[in-house]
Amino acid sequence: MLLLEPRLQFDKCIIGVMYTDSRVVYDASLVIQVFMEINEWSYDEALEWFEYNVLRSLPYYETSPIFVNLDFDICDIDSFESMEDEDEDEDEEEDEDE
Questions:
Q1: Alpha carbons 96 and 77: distance in angstroms, whole number
Q2: pLDDT digit string (tens) for 52-61?
Q3: I need a surface site. Which of 51, 85, 86, 98 has the fewest CB within 10 A?
């Protein structure tokens, strides 16, 4: 099981455990807040560091943590789904052109 260090700060961000493959589940927004606190970073700096250094490393670990965004609005999901639909339409148009 892979845990973020320093544990004293990041353990409070744990919201669950996936027992089937021993993975810890973190609240991503709390993790970003901890980065802001311990490094005295702005939100944008902490988010950029989290995305580049944490999320990009996940595929390299078998038991990497899972990060969940609990701060979302259902409207965000609707707009994301419409973006996916647009991408599918563009792919179909490209296939027709070939």
A1: 29
A2: 999 988 888 8
A3: 98
